[in-house]
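Archive maintenance. Older records in this collection stored only the sequence; we are now back-filling the structure field for every entry so that each record is complete. The fields below show one back-filled record exactly as it appears after the update. Entries are processed alphabetically, and Probable RNA 2'-phosphotransferase is next in the queue.

ARCHIVE ENTRY
Title: Probable RNA 2'-phosphotransferase
Organism field: Comamonas testosteroni
Length field: 185
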Amino acid sequence: MKNSNASEKATARSKFLSLVLRHSPQTIGLKLDEAGWAQTDELLACLARSGRPTSLQDLQTLVADNNKQRYSFSADGKRIRANQGHSIKVELGLDAQRPPAVLYHGTATRFLDAIFLEGLTRQARHHVHLSESVEVASQVGSRHGKLALLQVDAARMHGEGHVFYRSDNGVWLTDVVPVQYLLKL
Ligand code: HQG
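Back-filled structure field:
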């Protein structure tokens, strides 16, 4: 019981950290730079002022234990940012990379008609998010409802000039996946 409470608390903290580092830093009066970095000490001060006192050690544990490695510290530890998933404008500075031949995207069946009309588009995020494994794609898609799995011909996309990035936590990112590269599994 105690453990599950602790893990619920950690999940709630992680969700709040996602909110401020990806979507809404102003919620706690935090400022991010153009690459999405917050000063670690400012983040801790803003968390404390907003009634969420967090020690540096707690924050380090949260970053290290996060199930999807959603956050990173800079090498000197003075800054922290989300690795991907932003809705606010940030320039992560990722280098374009050659993707694996095939990538996967999990979505909900109710989105399929729109997806097969206009392709996968980035919605509220900066990029379309793609996974290397069916398992991860299935988890991502199930968040939205009844799962539909799509296979993406990433090799052909790349060959035809589409640019791919890989976030520090292994998510593949691209601007759009046109219909001709999609296969419903
Ligand atoms: C769908 C999580 C209609 C798309 C995950 C998805 C991921 C369309 C939804 C990350 C569409 C957007 C991102 C179109 C795409 N018409 N619907 N043309 N094109 N969609 O949450 O990929 O836990 O923004 O299929 O692990 O589900 O936040 O994207 O169902 O990496 O770290 O529109 O979020 O990471 O939903 O998930 P989302 P996503 P975190």
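Update note: The two ends are 39 Å apart (CA to CA). The CA atoms of residues 166 and 172 lie 5 Å apart.
Entry marked complete.
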